[in-house]
Structure formats: C-alpha cells, structure tokens
Write a structure and sequence with these properties.
The protein is mostly helical. It is 74% helix and 0% strand. It has one domain. The protein has seven helices and no strands. The longest helix is centred in the N-terminal third of the chain and has 26 residues.
C-alpha cells in the first residue's frame, strides 16, 4: 500500500468516524492538552494499522479497538508520569466544557471517566449501539462478561443519578 493511499484512508476514516475518536479521547483524557495529545496518538496508531486492516470486521470495530488500546496505554503512561508531580485525586475529572455542552452529557462523561478502563470502553461502545458480541470482540472479553459488566455499569450510573437528585 502506498503512503498516499494510506493517507487517503485515514482522512476518510477521520471524516466519517471523528465522533468515535473524540468519544474515546474525552473519556480517557482529563484536560484539553491531554485530549490533543491522545487524539494525535490514536490518529497515529490508526494510520500505522491501516495496512493491516483486512476487512474481517467493520471499520468502526477496528478503529475502536485501536483507539481503546491506545487510550489505555496512553492513560497508564500519563498516570505514572503525573503521579510524580501531582496526585490524580487532586486533578479535575474534566476541565470546563464549552457552554453549548448539555449539562447531562457533561455529567455522564464525568461518571464514565471514573470507571475502570474496560468498563469505560464498554460504556462508550454501548452508547454507540454496539452489540454485546461486537463489544466482546473489541475489548477482548467474553460476551457473558460484557453482559455482567454492562449490568453493573447501568446500576452504578442509576445510583449516581439518584444521588445527583
């Protein structure tokens, strides 16, 4: 595959699936600077993976898997790096969001950001309408484990919503 063809595919995927990229970035990065860094890292990893894409799964499944794996690795490295400078408990969950942002959506992303990495990934996939089978393939766990985790996530979000009152 030529580099030009690879670049064309990346631009096409970015145009058609940019929402997917931004959901993962927002769920894993805590501030604007980190979101920019993570977006670039995910984009780079997707670009590198294009020659290996064999169309055995949907583009979105492929992109999600790369995005989640990249975000998890990035988050882990960032956490280790920042622990020496500042406790993660002291860092804000999310920076101020633009005024056009729906307050309920901001609340949801704050709760999603507090979930464990696999749960965070599953929550985003659920919001995008993926089946349990597709989620299991993307995240790399069994379909029954997906069902259990989704049930627990929904229960947690319901409890948090009731506390919000």
């Amino acid at each position: 595959m030529t580099e030009e063809k690879q670049q064309d595919i990346l631009h096409d995927w970015l145009n058609r699936h940019k929402g997917l990229f931004f959901k993962v970035v927002r769920a894993y990065a805590r501030n604007e600077e980190d979101r920019d860094d993570l977006f670039q890292e995910i984009t780079l990893q997707v670009w590198r993976s294009i020659p290996n894409f064999r169309r055995e799964s949907a583009e979105t499944t492929w992109i999600y898997r790369i995005a989640f794996n990249t975000a998890i690795r990035w988050h882990s490295k960032e956490k280790k790096h920042k622990e020496g400078r500042q406790s993660m408990d002291m860092a804000p969950i999310l920076e101020a969001v633009p005024e056009y942002q729906d307050e309920r959506l901001s609340w949801l992303y704050e709760r999603i950001a507090q979930l464990a990495e696999t749960d965070r990934s599953l929550c985003l996939l659920l919001l995008d309408g993926f089946s349990y089978k597709e989620m299991a393939q993307i995240v790399g766990i069994s379909e029954s484990n997906v069902a259990v985790k989704i049930h627990r996530i929904k229960k947690y979000l319901q409890e948090q919503s009731q506390k919000k009152g």
